[in-house]
Write a structure and sequence with these properties.
The protein has about 525 residues and is of the alpha+beta class. It folds into three domains: about 1-145, DNA ligase, ATP-dependent, N-terminal domain (DNA ligase i, domain 1, Orthogonal Bundle), CATH 1.10.3260.10; about 205-400, 2-Layer Sandwich (D-amino Acid Aminotransferase, Chain A, domain 1), CATH 3.30.470; about 405-525, OB fold (Dihydrolipoamide Acetyltransferase, E2P), CATH 2.40.50. It has 18 helices and 20 strands. It has helices at about 1-15, 15-30, 35-45, 55-65, 70-80, 80-90, 100-110, 115-125, 130-145, 150-165, 165-175, 185-190, 285-295, 300-305, 330-340, 360-365, 450-460, 515-525; strands at about 205-210, 220-230, 230-240, 240-245, 270-280, 285, 310-320, 320-325, 350, 375-380, 390-400, 405-415, 425-430, 435-440, 465, 470, 475-480, 485, 495-500, 500-505. Strands 3, 4, 5, 6, 7, 8 and 9 form a seven-stranded mixed β-sheet that branches. Strands 12, 13, 14, 15, 16, 17 and 20 form a seven-stranded antiparallel β-sheet that branches. Strands 1-11-10-2 form a four-stranded mixed β-sheet, with no helix packed on it. Helix 1 runs antiparallel to helix 2 (about 15-30), helix 2 crosses helix 10 and helix 5 crosses helix 6. It is globular, with a radius of gyration of 26 Å. The two termini are about 50 Å apart.
């Protein structure tokens, strides 16, 4: 654990990417294989399961520290992080430990199988054997909320430096359903065949938002298609078995059983990049229909009928068992069309291309997006390979402008992490006669200076406290942007917004000019 804590300190203390990559690379050169494997797992979101609730940890830490509960809670509200608070308030350790990162993770698993008294004793004993930095990391692992300011991309770059392997190859190796329980460092990183795991997806190619056409060159060099509003996924058929992966590397095969029928038509060794859409009567259903299925491991027959899904195919990544990502997009598209024509299944559709001659033509086509159930357009250069990650140059997304509504802030709550001392999470309402009807929450979109200004105002103008929530006078209007609106029986307003965020603080607008519930209902009628 000491080596991992030293690595964490180096990563935490520097803001320079080169320093972080160098520290990671050195760790991957020198650490034991099992620790390297767990480090790669932690940095790609494969965390151990939580073995104890945060409430219990707070009570036990306060007891060990000899603090009243209220003082521990005040300390927590200032520090903004539970593991950091515990590491700070506990007395210095009286024991020592030379356990490795892997050994501590195995110890966590043992604690998870014990009764509460044994678990408490084991956690307190661990705290008493670890200095501050290691105690902080151990508690992070305890909560199952381990996060660090290192992206998978940076980690992969460091792995490339440490192993001498190409970064794209390592990115591919780190995809899929692996955990430190079912692979070794040698089989995951050092093995030559990245497709030895039949289920392994390819890294997704992601696009930046298009700002202008100045750098794109002639329109004839580009293809365009709709950007559909569903779940980006890869459909994999290898070895007679199919797999469906989300962009977030979540295996979701069982959630969409309709797609299993594609195995009857598609050739083995096929990987399709596309969008899983709820689809009926020849058109996409609202995202809310698909959302009902996202969190389910099994889908009841009624929901299968209400929200049937299709795979809207964008790209072909593997054909007859061969990786074809290096081919130009135009060639991959031709092969995709051939594959799609082979299938007689309604669950596979080829994403239609948008024809255009000039950029003005394309701009006009973009305006139809919402009417077609799309978020906007995707632009792909004809000669572009299929790359990994978010790149600029060959692929662009051109989304329609968000929907907006002016709303009144009525509640505020403090944030977390570096924003723990600021009120950053707000509840908003629209006018309904003399009443205000809450309809959404938002916590992003403002500058730090604006958050500090609002925080100072909240502290001086709190009307009531409800735990961490402060009721405030309804005097501030904000422009709220969102991507979609749907009917909801869970909210008093009757609506739910998709991706709400604060576009700007309308200090120029009085509450009397904020939007009304009728305005919100009209938007639901038009866009829901």
């Amino acid at each position: 654990m000491k080596a991992f804590a030293a690595l964490f300190a180096q990563l935490d203390e520097s803001t320079k990417t080169s320093v972080k990559v160098a520290a990671l690379a050195e760790y991957f050169r020198t650490a034991p294989d099992d620790d390297k494997l767990w480090t790669a797992a932690l940095f790609t979101g494969r965390r151990p399961k939580r073995v104890i609730t945060a409430t219990k940890l707070r009570l036990w830490a306060a007891e060990v520290a000899g603090l009243p509960d209220w003082l521990f809670e005040e300390s927590y509200s200032i520090a903004g992080d539970l593991a950091e608070t515990i590491a700070l308030v506990l007395p210095p350790p009286t024991q020592t430990s030379d356990h490795s990162l892997t050994q501590w993770i195995m110890r966590l698993r043992e604690l998870g199988k014990q009764d509460e008294d044994q678990r408490k004793a084991g956690i307190i004993a661990a705290w008493n054997s670890l200095p501050h930095a290691e105690r902080f990391l151990f508690t992070k692992l305890l909560t199952g909320g381990f996060r660090i300011g290192i992206s998978a991309k940076l980690m992969t770059r460091a792995l490339a430096q440490a192993t001498g392997q190409p970064e794209p190859e390592l990115t591919h190796k780190l995809m899929g359903n692996w955990t430190p329980d079912n692979v070794t460092w040698a089989s995951l990183i050092e093995a030559d065949d990245p497709t030895s795991d039949q289920s392994r997806p390819y890294p997704f190619y992601l696009a930046y938002q298009l700002e202008d056409f100045d750098s794109l060159g002639p329109p004839a060099d580009w293809s365009a298609e709709r950007k559909w509003d569903g779940i980006r996924g890869q459909f994999i058929l290898r070895g007679g078995t199919h797999y469906l992966w989300s962009r977030g590397e979540e295996l979701m095969t069982d959630r969409f059983p309709e797609l299993a029928q594609l195995c009857d038509d598609l050739p083995d060794g096929t990987v399709i990049d596309g969008e899983v859409l709820a689809f009926a009567n020849g058109a996409p259903l609202p995202f809310a229909a698909l959302q009902k299925r996202i969190g389910r491991k099994t889908v009841p027959r009624k929901l299968l009928a209400e929200a049937p899904v299709i795979l809207m195919a964008y790209d072909l990544l593997e054909h007859d068992g061969h990786d074809i990502r290096a081919l130009p997009f135009a060639q991959r598209r031709q092969r995709l069309e051939t594959v799609a024509q082979v299938s007689t299944r309604a669950t596979l559709r080829l994403s239609p291309q948008v024809t255009f001659t000039t950029w003005d033509d394309l701009a006009a086509a973009r305006e139809d997006s919402r009417d077609l159930g799309a978020e906007g357009l995707m632009l792909k250069r004809h000669d572009s390979p299929y790359l990994a990650g978010r790149k600029k140059g060959d692929w662009w997304k051109w989304k329609v402008d968000p929907l907006t509504i002016d709303a009144v802030m009525i509640y505020a709550q403090s944030g977390s992490g570096r924003r723990a001392n600021l009120f950053t999470d707000y509840t908003f309402a629209v006018r309904d006669g003399d009443a205000l009807v809450p309809f959404t929450k938002a916590y992003s979109g403002l500058t730090d200076a604006e958050f500090r200004q609002i925080t100072a105002w909240v502290r001086k103008n709190t009307l009531q406290k409800f735990g961490p929530v402060r009721q405030v006078p309804p005097v501030h209007v904000f422009e709220i942007a969102f991507e979609g609106i749907n009917h909801s029986t869970r909210h008093k307003s009757g609506v739910a917004l998709r991706f709400p965020r604060m576009l700007r603080w309308r200090q120029d607008k009085p509450v009397a000019e904020a939007n009304t519930l009728a305005d919100l209902q009209e938007m639901l009628r038009l866009y829901g």
